[in-house]
From TrEMBL, chain B:
Isomerase in keyword set: no
Subcellular location: Cell membrane
GO CC term (a single one): plasma membrane
Name under which the protein is recorded: Monosaccharide ABC transporter membrane protein (CUT2 family)
Length: 347, 342
């Protein structure tokens, strides 16, 4: 092997080592796309199929972004689905009220409703943040309880049934396409760009990582830990609320128990995207990739009618465990055959 | 004597007990239906499955981990066992199903144990993953659907009553299934192991500080592994018992129970980060959740308000215990720590 080859090899290796997680996701994704090319080319690679995919993933994608920021601080948000449903239900009821019997509202109201949804998400997320930051309830419990509470409020508001007779204008507006791109995706992209900017270009991102690494160090470094935590859960609440608005459009109805498996799915995506559940580590690029990967996996599987859709959850779980075990071996530098004398870590 | 009383009022269990007592008095006052023999028996039999789940969840949380996979694990075991026995047209007693459940449960628990215990990966994420896998195996590979018929032995076991309590005023009667004894035995066994064996003290030590426990000579990985196996076994037994009690196998209706069970355990004073908690508290916390879920209807609260109440209960309960932990923590550390400006 001559020198140039080794250098190129080294460069590739160092690029790989820097973002191992990201590359691994890209490799998995490429393998999957190659697999789909070989087996189901004509059914998978169609414009409509990709348009559908891009219209579907924003709902849980937005919630995943919310879970991500919380998890970087070392917390978690289990109330995302609850917030999403409460937002969807309250806005649906509001639109019902505005539209009256005509089942039609003006574009102005659609915008107002969206702004209101953001406010609902801010309030819900703010409450979560207060509970975590001020009352020091462990995030997993605080958001679990609040999630249950939001779901409960949703049930009380709807009496447990679905609301579907709200103005059709709304679903029509969100299910639309701009230059062939679904509106749902545009909303998701806007949120993702804003969040990326906040995490990468502003000090907020650095503070978040520091806070997740060690809350005490962050506090003694003079960070306003409480404010950062509240802000984080607030962002998560807004993301969830937007996710709820997209769910409302996609299902064309609102109900308190829609999307109940999204809670686990969001956590799965975030961990798959390389965010450490203990906090302090994670990049938005990884999570974005993971969101898309999960959707591509599921859509791809749906092209095989003989495979029960229930296998999807098996595959998700298996992929998650696989990625975690891979991380474990690479991060601790343990090879299967060489046992290190003291590889005990406590988290 | 005074000391004893004071000590009693420093314990979380006392407060939980008082809350439960107050709640029952309220229900009794509003409906006159709580302290009736059949209602108490109903509550006891409603406790069986959540109680067993809680024991498993409690042990894992105590050791500093968490397990959210037990409902999926129990569903998979219960469905696989029932389906297999139906397929071979099994006619014997309930012992074989329970034994089978124990074996499958131990194997599935060991999967959790390998990832979360031996490899020391974050328990929450591992069990989320395995829960997803278990669900996939049950619904995908085994193609689960509701089984309206269950083997005869299991049917009899579910029907056999320890005793029957009748309410003379309205003629309703309820009987307590024999399965209640299983809960009593498991809870007693866990209580004994935690309190009086080295293994049990090891669980507390690991939950308190893993490195310290390791340095003190506890086999940290082995203990954690065994805890997940034990949780798998207990959850599987609970799954089988639920099938027996319902007289049919409904594969998905246990899913989603995990959060309320964990909430009950934490309400009972178990620290979510591990190292602190008692068996009594765990049972009382679970009882509180079961009471709220089952008895709200008795005080005239419509069923649709149930989730709101459970949610408020979790938030308020955890806020109080977080506040208490902070207070005692500050008292203990006073003088060692710079007063925090926040």
């Amino acid at each position: 092997m001559n020198e140039r080859q080794t250098q190129a090899g080294l460069r590739i290796k160092s690029a790989y080592m820097r973002d191992r997680h990201l590359w691994r996701l890209i490799i998995i994704m490429l393998l999957w796309f190659i697999f789909m090319t070989v087996t189901r080319f004509s059914k998978f690679y169609t414009v409509v199929n990709f348009q559908t995919m891009f219209a579907q993933f924003p709902e849980f994608g937005l919630m995943s972004l919310g879970v991500m920021v919380c998890m970087i601080t070392g917390g978690i948000d289990l109330s995302t689905v609850g917030i999403a449903n409460v937002t969807a239900i309250s806005t649906a009821l509001l639109m019902q009220h505005i539209g009256g019997d005509s089942r039609h509202i003006s574009v102005f109201w659609v915008v107002v409703v969206f702004l209101l949804a953001i406010v609902v998400g801010m309030i819900a997320g703010g409450v979560n943040g207060m509970l975590v930051a001020k009352l020091h309830i462990p995030p997993i419990l605080a958001t679990l309880g609040m999630g249950e509470l939001f779901t409960g409020i949703g049930i009380v508001l709807t009496n447990g049934s679905a609301i579907s007779d709200f103005p059709t204008t709304y679903a029509f507006a969100v299910n639309n396409r701009v230059l062939g791109i679904p509106v749902q995706f545009l909303i998701f992209a806007a949120a993702a760009v804003i969040l990326s900017f906040m995490l990468i270009k502003t000090t907020y991102g650095k503070k978040l990582i520091l806070l997740g690494t060690s809350q005490n160090v962050a506090k003694y470094s003079g960070l306003k830990v409480d404010m950062i935590l509240i802000k984080t859960y607030l962002i998560s609440g807004v993301c969830s609320a937007l996710g709820g608005m997209i769910m409302l459009a996609n299902y064309n109805s609102a109900r308190a128990d829609y999307g109940s498996n999204y809670t686990l799915q969001c956590i799965l995506i975030v961990v798959l995207g390389g965010v450490s559940p203990n906090g302090g580590k994670g990049k938005i690029s990884g999570v974005l990739l993971a969101i898309f990967l999960v959707r591509a996996l599921e859509t791809g599987l749906n092209r095989f009618p003989q495979i029960s859709s229930y296998y999807v959850s098996l595959i998700w779980g298996a992929v998650l465990l696989l990625v975690m075990v891979l991380n474990y071996f690479t991060e601790n530098d343990i090879s299967l055959f060489k046992k290190k004398p003291n590889n005990f870590h406590a988290d | 004597m005074q000391n004893k009383v004071r000590k009693l009022f420093q314990q979380n269990e006392t407060y939980i007990f008082l809350i439960i007592f107050a709640l029952t008095i309220l229900i009794q006052a509003r409906s006159g239906q709580f302290y009736t023999p059949n209602n108490i028996v109903d509550i006891m039999s409603a406790m069986i499955v959540p109680g067993l789940f809680a024991v498993g969840a409690f042990l894992v949380i105590l050791s500093g981990g968490i397990d959210v996979s037990f409902p999926a694990l129990a569903s998979l075991t219960a469905f696989a066992t029932t389906k297999f026995l139906l397929d071979i047209n099994y006619q014997g007693s309930v012992l074989v199903p329970i034994l089978m459940a124990i074996i499958i449960g131990a194997a599935l628990g060991a999967v959790n144990g390998i990832f979360a215990g031996l490899l020391n990966l974050p328990a929450m994420i591992v069990t989320l993953g395995t829960s997803s896998v278990f669900k996939g195996i049950m619904q995908g590979t085994l193609q689960s659907k509701q089984l309206a018929v269950i083997p005869k032995g299991m049917k009899q076991f579910g029907r056999r009553a320890l005793f029957t309590a009748a309410n003379k005023s309205n003629g309703l009667s309820s009987s307590l299934p024999v399965a209640f004894l299983v809960l009593v035995v498991v809870a007693a066994l866990t209580f004994f192991v935690l309190k009086f064996t080295m293994f049990g003290r090891g669980v507390y030590a690991i939950g308190g500080n893993e490195n310290a426990a390791y340095n003190a000579g506890f086999k940290v990985k082995k203990t954690k592994f065994l805890l997940y196996v034990f949780t798998g076994i207990v959850a599987s037994i609970a799954g089988i018992i639920r099938v027996c009690m319902m007289q049919q196998c409904h594969p998905t209706n246990m899913l989603g129970m995990e959060m309320n069970i964990i909430a009950g355990v934490v309400l009972g004073g178990t620290a979510i980060v591990g190292g602190k908690g008692t068996m009594t508290g765990c049972m009382l916390g679970t009882l509180l959740i079961v009471l709220v879920e089952n008895s709200l209807i008795l005080i005239g609260v419509p069923v649709i308000w149930k989730d709101v109440f459970v949610g408020v209960l979790i938030v308020v309960g955890t806020a109080v215990s977080a506040y208490q932990a902070e207070k005692t923590g500050h008292r203990k550390r006073r003088g060692h720590e710079v007063k925090e400006a926040s």
